[in-house]
Amino acid sequence: MRYPVADLVVLDTLGKLHARGHGLTGYCRSCRRYFAVPLPTLIAARGANSPVVRIRPLKCAGCGERETEIRITAPSKGGG
Ligand SMILES: [Zn+2]
């Protein structure tokens, strides 16, 4: 018995995330604020083949600390 794999897209790089319409949101544990992470900027800086899972923490846009988590956001609805 095989399972369909059509929906199991492996989003393991920044480039794939961007291509699928996903985005990134940063969460700062220091000031407890969410901030948008511009994916095109990140790709330009680190490369489209940068792995998502081992991404280095980003500097918080609010307080400048690096106690941040990166979260993948779902593609925006519509437009498809
Ligand atoms: Zn912060």
Task: Write up this protein.
It is a single chain. By secondary structure, the protein is an alpha+beta fold. Helix content is 18%, strand content 21%. The chain is built from 2 helices and 3 strands. A 3-stranded antiparallel β-sheet has the order 2-1-3. The mean pLDDT is 86. Zinc ion binds at residues 28, 30-31, 33, 60, 62-63, 65.
Q: How is the topology of this model organized?
A:
Layout: H1 14-19, E1 23-28, E2 33-37, H2 39-46, E3 68-73
Antiparallel strand pairs: 1-2, 1-3
Bound molecules: zinc ion.
Zinc ion binds at residues 28, 30-31, 33, 60, 62-63, 65.
- Count of alpha/pi helices: 2
Q: Which ligands appear in the coordinates?
A: zinc ion
Rg result: 14 Å
Shape: globular
Question: What percentage of the residues does DSSP assign to strands (E)?
Answer: 15-25%
> Portion of residues in helices?
10-25%
User: Averaging pLDDT over every residue, what do you get?
Assistant: 86
From the N-terminal CA to the C-terminal CA, the straight-line distance is 32 Å
Q: Which short descriptors sum up this protein?
A:
80 residues; globular; 3 strands; binds zinc ion; 18% helix; 21% strand; alpha+beta
